[in-house]
Amino acid sequence: MVNRLAEAALRTGSRIKRAIHRATEPRSARGQRSESDVDELAGLLFPHGLSAESADAVRAALHTMELSPSTVRNILGSVDQQRSPTPFSVRLSNDDVAYVAVDGIDVALDRADRSVSGPIITDGFWEPHVERVLRRFLAPGAVFVDIGANVGWHTALASSAVGVDGQVYAIEPNPDNARLIAHTIERNHLSNVHLVPIALGASTGFAAFRSAIGSNGGFLNHDEHDSLDPSVTIVPTMRFDDLHISRVDVVKIDVEGAEPIVARWPGESLA
User: Fold this and answer.
1) What phi-psi label fits residue 256: left (phi over 0), alpha (psi between -120 and 50 degrees) or beta?
2) Helix (H) or strand (E) holding 126
3) Is pLDDT of 146 > 70?
4) Is residue 116 classed as helix, strand or coil in its secondary structure?
5) Residue where one domain finishes, among candidates 46, 77, 108
6) Mean pLDDT, the chain, whole residue set
């Protein structure tokens, strides 16, 4: 029985290896992969199928693009992964990062992120209404808490506004977003910014978080998630008060609908 299972696993692994080899080998003189290669590669990346609005763009990219970790990240980022889930995740690397400056600070952004990074790279700004409020209320020496910091655009703006005598706390559970913020801190030597890569909630524990390239991500409730779902990340949670920030002047909360959870006291019902 064990031998049969081992043989079946080896055969499956060999088929996948051959499919990837065929899909990534040099393309025809026309510079395109065959339809069968595209079908096979699309099936590997999106085994549950592609939504109608994503299928044409993904297939066009697979026909012509040279495959690399960065181009695969871009393909995955172009798809609504709530509708077309994938078991694949390609981690952010140097080739995926672009920089846009705010108040002299180079903010690290993800080229494959269509949700936040993309508009900033294109337009050079993000949520100007929030920026106006922060510039109005943040003064040198202030303490700012950015709950749901995302890629850290407002964190960087606040770092400049509060100056060396102020403090900024960036709360962000999405692992790749947290890596971008960490890189922004390191690149710009931001001694007044503190990255806290957790989710805030009603208690200390953990939560299921679905993150995908090109998406803000968000919490899932216990009825919606399976801990072994490849799109789920388990992130630590703790209460805001347990951060022991002695003084807070301004708080921004943007956590994709989980604001009531962040503000809830232990044992308090959401009803």
Assistant:
1) left
2) none
3) yes
4) coil
5) 77
6) 84
Please give the Cα distance from 186 to 98 (Å, whole number).
Answer: 15
User: Does residue 241 lie in a domain region?
Assistant: yes
State the pTM of this model: 0.79
Please state, in angstroms and rounded to a whole number, the distance separating the CA atoms of residues 98 and 119. 12
Q: What is the DSSP letter of 246?
A: S
Which residues touch 215 (CB under 8 Å, ≥6 apart)? 80, 81, 82, 115
Last residue of some domain: 49, 77, 105?
77
Question: Are residues 115 and 71 part of one domain?
Answer: no
Distance, CA of 163 to CA of 77 (rounded, Å): 35
- Asked whether residue 269 is domain-assigned, the answer is no
The predicted structure's pLDDT at residue 80: 80
Do 226 and 109 sit in the same domain of this protein? yes
215: which DSSP letter? Answer: S
* pLDDT tens, position by position, 81-99: 778 888 888 888 999 999 9
Paired strand residues for 220 = 208
pLDDT at 79: 86
| pLDDT of the residue at 223 | 59
Structural domain count, the chain: 2
